[in-house]
Specification:
Number of strands: 8
Bound molecules: cytidine-5'-monophosphate
Shape: globular
Strand content: 15-25%
Structural class: alpha/beta
Number of helices: 11
Helix content: 40-55%
Largest sheet: 8 strands, parallel, barrel
Length: 239
């Protein structure tokens, strides 16, 4: 079933205090329904309690904690995250880790796998002891994720079309690295506009600085949602 355009935008709460996060959430109001909380806010004072409160207030929460440990530890961690009321949780795409997370997840929580961190290139992989290119490793791990029943993958918009062809349409694809036309790219090297990322097969877009650092965050979010809606409507017409 098609996801509402407004629900396809996930705003990254990359802030160091829950007060700053709440101020932004208040400013965005009904314009935004989905938030990503990563290390920066989760490990800030009362960060996880804030994630729980945000979920209880009716927002959807993506906990980007990129878990990776022995299976039992991952499984127990996933159960605790499920109790916080989060909708999405990331784990690294290692078979044992994905399997443990999938087995331990509870209704309402989807497990997303991170294939290869986008800061890694072929040289970095070699340096880390891998005998594979980024492209081959992403493809192999995407296939393993599908076989293990993982709910979705986080990938760069550039990889989205390839990953989609490997995992089919049932897995959720979430892409960061989104920049509306004309905005600052910051440290993101592989970027796409919201419309292009949707066209490449992304279900959800993670957007941080173009909204968090905008003079008017609510207007910035609304413009991105409008772009998602326009692209989705066009695709529907051509379906
Ligand atoms: O500010 P910006 O839109 O670049 O934020 C993107 C968000 O997505 C950040 O929270 C960042 O950690 C996350 N992310 C990313 N690239 C990845 C994985 C996650 O930018 N490959």
């Amino acid at each position: 079933m098609a996801i509402e355009p407004r629900e396809r935008l996930i705003v990254a709460l990359d802030l160091s205090s829950i007060e700053a996060a709440q101020a932004l959430v208040t400013k965005l109001g009904d314009a935004v329904s989905f938030y990503k909380i990563g290390y920066q806010l989760a490990f800030a004072n009362r960060g996880l309690a804030y994630a729980q409160a945000l979920a209880a207030s009716g927002k959807r929460v993506f906990l980007d904690l990129k878990l990776h440990d022995i299976g039992n530890t991952v499984a127990q961690g996933v159960k605790s995250v499920a109790r916080l009321g989060a909708s999405f949780l990331t784990v690294h795409a290692y078979p044992q880790t994905m399997d443990a997370a999938v087995q331990a997840r509870e209704a309402g929580l989807r497990i997303l796998a991170v294939t290869v961190l986008t800061s890694y290139d072929d040289y970095d992989l070699k340096h880390a002891g891998y005998d594979a290119t980024v492209k081959a490793l992403v493809a192999g791990r995407a296939e393993q994720a599908r076989v293990l029943g993982v709910d979705g993958l986080v990938c760069s918009p550039e990889e989205a079309a390839t990953v989609r062809s490997i995992v089919g349409k049932d897995l959720v694809l979430v892409t960061p690295g989104i920049r509306p036309a004309g905005s600052q790219s910051g440290d993101q090297k592989r970027i796409m506009t919201p419309a292009a990322a949707i066209a490449a097969g992304a279900d959800y877009l993670v957007v941080g600085r173009p909204i968090v650092a905008a003079p008017d965050p609510k207007a910035a979010a609304a413009a991105i949602i409008a772009e998602i809606a326009q692209q989705a409507a066009m695709e529907k017409q051509h379906a």
